[in-house]
C-alpha cells in the first residue's frame, strides 16, 4: 500500500483513535467501540478504511472479526517518514561539522 492512502486514513481523528486502540493488541469491533464515543457500525466503517489503506488486517474468530495492526502495511509509511529523518540527520551532521571548525 502507498503512504498516501495511509496518511489519508490516519488524517481522520476517529480513525487514528481506532488505530491507536489496536496498539494494545488484537481486538474485535465490539471491544473497540466500547471505548469510543461512536457506534459499532461506525467503528466497522473506520476499520474498513484502515484495512483498505493496509494499516490493519483481520481474521475470523467464530462469528467475530478480530482486527490488528498490520506491521507490513506500516512499511510504506515508515519508509516515507524515514526519508525526512535521514535528511534532518544529514543536515544536523553538516551543521555540527561546519560549526565545529570555528573557534
Automatic annotation (TrEMBL):
The keyword Secreted is annotated on this UniProt entry: no
Gene3D superfamilies in alphabetical order: Winged helix-like DNA-binding domain superfamily/Winged helix DNA-binding domain
Any Pfam family matching the protein: HTH_20
UniProt signal peptide: none
The HTH arsR-type domain, residue ranges: 1-88
CDD domains the UniProt entry points to: HTH_ARSR
Name this protein carries in UniProt: Transcriptional regulator
Amino acid at each position: 500500500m502507498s503512504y498516501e492512502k495511509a496518511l489519508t486514513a490516519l488524517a481522520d481523528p476517529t480513525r487514528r483513535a481506532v488505530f491507536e486502540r489496536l496498539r494494545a493488541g488484537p481486538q474485535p469491533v465490539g471491544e473497540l467501540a466500547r471505548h469510543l464515543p461512536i457506534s459499532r457500525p461506525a467503528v466497522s466503517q473506520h476499520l474498513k478504511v484502515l484495512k483498505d489503506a493496509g494499516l490493519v488486517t483481520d481474521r475470523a474468530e467464530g462469528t467475530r472479526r478480530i482486527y490488528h495492526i498490520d506491521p507490513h502495511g506500516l512499511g510504506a509509511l515508515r519508509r516515507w517518514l524515514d526519508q525526512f529523518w535521514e535528511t534532518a540527520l544529514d543536515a544536523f551532521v553538516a551543521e555540527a561539522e561546519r560549526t565545529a571548525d570555528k573557534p
